[in-house]
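Lecture 7 notes. Example A: sequence first, then its structure tokens.
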Amino acid sequence: MPIKIPNNLPAVNILEKENIFAMDEDRAYAQDIRPLRILLLNLMPTKIVTETQLLRLLGNSPLQVEFDFIYTATYEPKNTSQEHLVKFYETFNDVKTRKYDGMIITGAPVEQIPFEEVVYWQELCEIMDWSRRNVYSTLHICWGAQAALYHHYGIPKYNLAQKMFGVFPHTVNIKEKMLFRGFDDVFYVPHSRHTEVRREDIEKIPQLCILSESAEAGIYAIIDKKHRHLFITGHSEYDPLTLKAEYDRDVGQGLPINIPDNYYPNDDPRQTPVVRWRSAANLLFSNWLNYYVYQGTPFDLDKLNDSGDLSGLYGDGI
């Protein structure tokens, strides 16, 4: 949690440079406490697995959080029981009159299909447009990040010669940004995708900034100028055996698949995978929930709009 200091104390600038989060008295007195409201748009076919992964990470916080779950009405999931959907999920029509502190849009196994040919593309575009007015901070993951970058900024995706598959080392480009507060100089993230976004396209958009990347896996984390939308290309939320399950599935179906990089000891699938990303994953989600949702969202969500930003809180506009 932030430290509270007197208004205009000279130490503020020093603390900001050291990546210490300080809150002045005016901001502290203006705050009140209530549960955060988070909306999860789950586009993954194995919805129970994905919701468990994300809730595990988001639950690693002293903040009180309430969750709503939605799926797309224009596509009926085939790998999740109707009973589970009826009991725990709603559709966009059910929630579109509400406002949320935060939202997560997951990945989806449709990355090799052109965006406009995805059966729920128009519905997803409507949800993404709605999120800009009704959600304070939105975290987009993997294909969800590619879809949002394409929809909001026209950034294309590119097919890879072979699947980006494994656990790769990453570095932080801008260490002062709170999303990566507490991260090691090198940290690991799982990736499992057939497509990518490229630096040269992102750098053409002045509203975006690349926060982290990998020499092997490419761009990892992007943020918008208002600090309201984050785009993560990897799968920090993955369980220890998620990549193994994907590898075993593809091998069983006779599909071309490499052994995931930096995952099995000695690249031997008969051995137990080594988890290298757990601490970074917990930090990523707790930092997002604290610094990009809790510290910025208005107490009265009816006052939410797309004009506010966190630039004054974190220094420069990007």
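Example B, a different protein, same format:
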Amino acid sequence: MARERAENLVREVADLYGAGLQRVLRLLGNDAGAIERLARDDLVASLLLVHGLHPHDVHTRVRTALDTVRPYLGSHGGDVALLGVEDGVVRLELSGSCKTCPSSSVTLELAVEDAVRAAAPEIVSIEVAQPPAESAGVISADSLFSRVHANGQQSGQPAGNWFAVPELGELRPGEVGGFAIAGLVVLACRVGDNLFAYRDHCPSCDRSLAGAALHRRVGYPVGDAVLRCPNCLAHFDAVRAGARVDGDGHLEPLPVLVRSGELSVAVPVGVSG
């Protein structure tokens, strides 16, 4: 009996919130700018979604969500296109991506999955279509979500966990810093306005990257940035998914996105310090 009363109380409170939000939208009337600002606020948008009051349809929400992660995908040499949304299924086409690093595909999975599901929680599944042609050596688009499925995404288990790390915002352009996130030591750097994060591990010498610094290569344009391992002096492209520029090897990138208004880093399941 007590449980039933509690459930009824929660339901009544939720209905009250829904009625209040509906009244707010009605009072705003034709003020499209104000309604759009509400829709762009993560917290308000989530409440509007819960009560079926969001002003944008699912197709628009998914397209906008993909636009927010497209710059991040571009840093990995990849891109995403929305083919359609039908019967709760989002169909995407992922192209490009890192040519040598399987861990880079996991960062794309996490970024795309998270953005789409946050914008459209009502979707049932995400399908990835194969582009017409793939260059040799490039991770195929239909394999980008294979790690998610292997890690149990289809059974409801996440492929990775997101952790708020607002301290990343304190990094200045050209600065490199170390952060402990869920027991994992992460190296983060800022190049211009963009933040990049990598696991603190040099694949060349198998040692920590603590003390690494950003450098601009001679003859390269402004915006070029490589991380130099302080131990073996191997150089890695900080902007393009951590690919080594003077030999074989690859840093392990981690997604950095703004989630619910906070800078956050995703740590894939099974990755630990």
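Note on Example B: The radius of gyration is 21 Å. Residues 22 and 53 are 7 Å apart (CA to CA).
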